[in-house]
Amino acid sequence: MSRSTRLRSAGPRPADRRLFLRGLGASIALPMLESGLPREVRAAAAASPPKPPVRMAFLFVPNGVHLPEWKPAACGSAFELPPILQPLAAHRQKLLVLSGLAQDAGFAHGDGPGDHARAAATFLTGVHPVKTDGRGIRAGISVDQVAADALRHATRFASLELGLEAGRNAGGCDSGYSCAYSNNISWRTPTTPSGKEINPRLVFERLFGGGVAVERAQSQAKRDAERRSILDLVQDDARTLQRRLASRDRQKLDEYLTSVREIEVRMERPAGALLDDDAPAAPRGIPADYGQHARLMADLIVLAFRADLTRVATLMMANAGSGLAYPQIGVREGHHNLSHHQNRPENLQRIAQINRYHVEQLAYLLTRLDAVREGEQSLLDNAMIVYGSSLSDGDRHNHDDLPILLAGGGGGRVAGGRHLQFENPTPLMNLYLRMLHVAGIDAERLGDSTGPLPDIAPA
């Protein structure tokens, strides 16, 4: 595991209904396949059918948005998707646009500039970070880690932290604030950021590797040398299991293993689209194209949720204050510089382009989640996906009336298809407190929350 990787092992799990395919250095967790289980386990499942678990993911975007093209004009169910959000049209009925939420801890409160660092540090914590570019960093425990701690014994990994832009934790990155604040949204303790992995290949190996470290290394070396799939290592187990499955479960298994193989192929080909050993700062497996990178990470989240490897994930679409350019959509200027738009129409137009491009990546994730069936529902129906920023306007550096979306049904406890306008400023942490309750996690307070956010449940 790279030093920036942190997919925390949940430790020993109680006996359950999960199946694995195993081979040299490989351990592939499978989605629920009732017909492959022992008779007594099937009988118990029939007597007490398990409910699909609720999963949650938090996606962060930097530098705010062009709010006039983000925020719907109407409230309630009659709203129309504005230009930036139009890529989400297929998921409108499973989408909440939440306006008026704020992250007060992101404001200076006497600490001067550094709004980008504070935006990331507060996004999931609701705690004002200590201004330091060296020792003594302190923020708060993030909501994803509160959920991870509560669910750690239910899954193989307590949480999954991912990103699309590299960033160090040492030194200063924003007006006297440590880079640890700018480059992390997940905090395991108030003084320990969780770190994130940006290499899809390393995430894949961590999720599906098995055995001791030596076996995992041997497995990867063998596959690299012989250009084999990780599925080749578990084919004996797979054939044995196939014979025990009903036709419905055989199809489900085939679809899942096909998804695993598709990700492997995309991580390796085309070679020209991947950054390789000629670029040592970007290990092989990181696509040169931002959209391809984002979609690979989205598919890894879907696989991890589908096989119940984890129920909690975070994804930084870019670091706070990111200067990434997006030439693939015709934007060659750095995002951060453009966000200081000074109301110039050409800058605002390019910011909106970037905002929409990021939303397109969200739409891909939602589409993939919605395609996975869990009984009469989809994986998206049993998930809660937060997308947004702790900055509203990148030029004003304001932390109120934030651009926040909540997608998914939360296992039937979240009703989408609405634009909700809350009194500004309502703490963003109130949303997260409600999400914890939906997931069955008892919490009285989170950061600067004042109570669980109302109105997101079905009427």
Low-confidence stretches: 1-15, 270-282
Count of DSSP strands: 18
Biggest β-sheet description = 8 strands, mixed
Query: What is the N-to-C succession of helices and strands?
Result: EEEHEEHHEEEHEEHHHHEEHEHHEEEEEH
Q: Which structural class should the secondary elements be placed in?
A: alpha/beta
Summarize the structure.
The protein has 12 helices and 18 strands. It is of the alpha/beta class and 459 residues long.
Record the SSE blueprint:
Blueprint lengths: L6 E3 L10 E4 L2 E4 L9 H9 L7 E6 L34 E8 L12 H9 L19 H9 L5 E7 L8 E3 L2 E2 H4 L4 E3 L2 E2 L6 H9 L4 H14 L8 H10 L2 H22 L5 E2 L10 E2 L2 H17 L5 E5 L18 H5 L5 H26 L2 E2 L2 E2 L4 E6 L15 E4 L10 E10 H11 L21
Parallel strand pairs: 4-13, 4-16, 5-18, 6-13
Antiparallel strand pairs: 1-6, 2-3, 5-17, 7-8, 9-10, 11-12, 14-15, 16-17
Helix pairs in contact: 5-9, 8-9, 9-11
Commentary on this structure:
By secondary structure, the protein is an alpha/beta fold. It has 12 helices and 18 strands. Helix 5 (200-208) runs parallel beside helix 9 (290-306), helix 8 runs antiparallel to helix 9 and helix 9 (290-306) packs parallel to helix 11.
What are the salient characteristics of this protein?
459 residues; alpha/beta; Alkaline Phosphatase, subunit A; two-stranded antiparallel sheet; globular
